[in-house]
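Archive record:
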Amino acid sequence: MPVQTSTAKPPPARADMSVILVTGSYDHEIRFWEAWSGICSRTIPAAESGQVNRLAISPDKRLLAAAIHKKVYIYEIAAATSAGASAIFEGHNGNITSICFHSEGKWLVTGSEDGTIKIWDLRSNTHLHRNYDNEAPVNDVVVHPNQGELISCDQAGRIKQWDLSENICTHELTPAGDTPMRSISLASDGSCLVAGNVKGKCYVWKINEERSDLPRFQAVTKFQAHNKYLTRLLLSPDVKYLATCSADTTVKIWSISPNYEFKLEKILQGHQRWVWDCAFSADSAYLVTASSDHTARLWEMASGETVRQYNGHQKAAVCCALHDGAG
């Protein structure tokens, strides 16, 4: 199927090495891409370790964290092409399903099918800093912008807030009973939380940070995003859009009004199989997606067109990471 190519011209800043774009696949490879040419600039084989589940780029663009089966591999982004992992974190007993960095890159958090959430200290030789027992397989974890809390969702249908200073779970939500919650996204300003379950339904909460007479999480709306399995959702950095990925091969873009009304803006069509992951550019103008059709795509939000397609993986591309902001 031919790929549509947008007439949009990349801004000068996007043409240099300040754009870090990475994909991971069930073919046991991690690939770095030149975002605008579509050329693969580096391949990291992970054959001995297994499938690559999730990827995260450190805020300073120095490190790539890869969740590969039960372990976390840390790679130096600027290292030579043949360089292996600079560190390996071990401790999970099941597939690692989520991974994200602290805003200053001092630590990272992982969630796993083994029912635990772990915090890893990048400055310590022992690495494992903290362990939370979630009692059910964890599907997603995000770090609150205040860097003092985590929010997770799990296979038991729960959303939990974890206080890092008190080392406890302080809030729990069960919006759809025991229907597994697949993905969560927190607004960059901490104003709202969106969660999606395996049945394609999305739930939205306004987060109250100031008034003690109001609940911390105020439910504001819910809507059916897809009629098939929802794999990932993500709020744009400017909190004006929500992207939802699905087994129906599409990515849907929802516009968000100031009073949290979600309106279907456009449907990104082109992938041939499940869409597993997505990542926004820093200015919210572009979106990268990864799919079971072995490809990743770069979409222009304004037109909804594919700007570039990344070919090279031999099996499903299930995760991607993009960092084109200030390092």
Observations:
- The two ends are 37 Å apart (CA to CA).
- The chain is about 0% helix and 50% strand.
- Confidence is low (pLDDT under 50) at residues 1-16.
- The longest strand covers residues 217-224.
